[in-house]
Amino acid sequence: MVFGKENVLDKKDNTKRIQEIDMAKGLLILLMVAFHLGLFNAKYPHACQIVYAFHMSGFLLISGYLFSVNREPKKFIKSIYGIVVPYIAFEIVYLLGLGMFGKFIGASNTFDGGVLTLLSKIAFLPSGTYWYLHTMAICLTIYYIVNRYVMKGLSGILISSIILYTLSVGIPGFKWGDIIYFIIGILFRNANFEINEKLKSPISLLCFVLIIIFANDISRCSIPGIGLTLTFLGFIFDLKDRIPKCISNYISYIGRNSLAIVLFSPLFTVVAKVCAPFFAFDGTRIIGTICCLSMIVTLCLFCAILFDRSSLSRIIVGKNIYSKL
Fold first, then answer.
1. Among residues 253, 181, 269, which one has the least CA distance to residue 222?
2. What is the DSSP letter of 261?
3. Residue 98 confidence (pLDDT)
4. Which of 21, 93, 221, 231 has its CB 3.0 to 4.6 Å from that of 208, i.e. a possible disulfide?
5. What is the pLDDT of residue 81?
6. What is the pLDDT of residue 97?
7. Tens of pLDDT, residues 141-163
8. For the chain, which ranges sit under pLDDT 70?
């Protein structure tokens, strides 16, 4: 990797999708939904620990990599609007839903506070998977402001990292162990390191397995966690050309709709947990997970279509959120 050179990635057509990255996002979002159902947690605790070490880390790294800091302020504000407004809207709905129905359905998260507690959680301690949007909004804003108005290149990344670390000390829901993956992503972009090509390797899966076998600490905020994230992405990028195109196209389709799934899935995941007792006959928990996962993803995509057709997407996100197959 060579830093400081003219950024070739910023000159590419940013409207053109990278199928390897869409496919990685698709598998990561499916893992996120599946393991947030909680059906696997007691049965396969080690598998849960492994997946939690890399599934959202991969999203943060990809988000940092795809972010072009050279966009005009007007375009940047529009992109931040598409993160902050849906985050606030869906976090409020999620918390109010937990407050009213959480105890009845046995949700792991609860909310019993008033308006001040609600505002505090939105600003400092997000619930559900919405922490990802909260983290991205802060990271993108700080990095953009520093790079545009203070310092560019590696110096800008260093200054941004210091500011982000300082904020992580004071904001409970904004964790350095998550931020570091965003920073890795922007470092890759700054170095013109095309992750979908350079991380791709036929031995990525072997490296992934070796880390699992020999690592003492498998968590998101650890060196093995970084290794798992990079090797998993490398494995998926390599897998894309080795599986039938119809399968890779469908997984990429899920990846293109990952924002819709991030927004809607926490609402349906809470409801899906009510269905868990119906699958008590399956000791492996696999059948229940597949059925609930399929239901949640289908409902998320259906809601995305409804939001687009009713223009709610443009109001809340600033654009349509559903991408066709």
1. 181
2. H
3. 82
4. 231
5. 98
6. 84
7. 999 999 999 999 999 999 999 99
8. 1-8, 10-16, 101-111
246 within a domain of the structure (yes/no)? yes
In degrees and rounded to multiples of 5, residue 173 shows phi and psi of -90, 5
User: Within a domain: residue 249?
Assistant: yes
Residue whose entry in the numeric block shows the structure tokens 């910023």: 10
Any domain includes 323: no
Which among 15, 4, 2, 131 has a CA at the least distance from the CA of 66?
A: 15
- Number of domains present in the structure of the chain: 1
The tokens for 56 are: 């959202």
CA distance 180 to 186: 10
- How long a stretch of residues is the chain? 325
Range of the domain at 25: 9-316
Residue 321 forms part of a structural domain: no
Residues 6+ apart with CB under 8 A from 64: 139, 181, 182, 183, 184, 185, 186, 187, 188, 189
Closest by CA to 187, choosing from 313, 26, 315, 3, is: 3
Which residues make Cβ contacts (< 8 Å) with residue 211, sequence separation at least 6?
A: 218, 224, 227, 228, 231
Cα separation, 206 vs 282, in Å, equals 31
Among candidate residues 258, 266, 261, 257, the one with its CA nearest the CA of residue 92: 266
Over residues 174-212, the pLDDT tens digits come to: 999 999 999 999 999 999 999 999 999 999 999 999 999
Q: Global pTM? A: 0.93
Sign (positive or negative) of CA dihedral 39, 42, 45, 49: positive
Sign (positive or negative) of CA dihedral 28, 34, 36, 40: negative
CB atoms within 10 A of CB 176: 15
